[in-house]
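thread: overnight batch results

M.L. [08:02]
morning all. the overnight job finished for the chain we discussed friday. pasting input first so we're all looking at the same thing
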Amino acid sequence: MEPRRSLGWPILLGVVLIGSIIALGVGWVLVSIAAALGSKNAAFYWAILGVGVALLVLVLAGVIVYLALTVKAIALSQRQSNFIDSVTHELKSPLASLKLYLQTLTRRPVSPEQQADFHRFMLDDVERLDTLIDHLLDAAKTLQQRPSRVAVMTPLAPVLERARDAVVKRHSVPAETIRLDVPARDGGLAVRGREADLEIVFRNLLDNAVKYSLPNPQVEVTATATPAGRVVVRVADNGPGIPISERTTVFRRFVRLGSELERSTPGTGLGLFLVKSLVGQMRGKVGVRGRMPPPGTVFEVELPAA
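M.L. [08:03]
and the structure it wrote out:
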């Protein structure tokens, strides 16, 4: 595996360069001022000083921009490496499991009960691969998709119900694991956004809520309308929570908390990136906070009401 690049050396190099430029610039300015004050042709020295200061500022700005771009590029490289580790693990595990079950079925007699178990396990592995491919395709479409200016009215309750059904089926948990509290007045709440995009958003949020709260997940989903013409959907879980320092970075592409080689929960680091991207395209916003009382996490999605 390629060694991970560290952010320490570009930051140290940038600080040293910036300090050196400032020190040299200050020294040069002091020498120039002293020369100008002691010279008969002071206007010439002041003109040179002005040009030199301008060039110094440009060089300093260039070093700062270079440092920022370098840090950003290395951080992206780290996230991409994390993503590759994650996808490799997500592909390798179900494929190895499928291979083992198929070899067992072909090499020795298996009772009908064991065959039924093997078939169920293989279907679970295929479902896991299908979910991974859907995530990658959704991410690709989201990056290419532009915000739509057409206001599409979508009822919220059916979207949340389909997302709940898909998640409880995937994780094999009871339906009451995810409790929906969506007002049914005036035919129910409706938001402006495409139905397919909304389903991706809430399926990912519910999937994370259940996945990181196992083995005993309890997820609550509430939807309320605000006087400002917005709809706020809150997804609360009873998982370990997200540290305050990580609550802004979890929405970046390829980001997953912890070490990829040590975590046990599957994923690609694209789910919350899809959520933020699609909500932004629908002229909404998404945030995260801790659940009170802890433990747990609450994701809040605010969308324009239809």
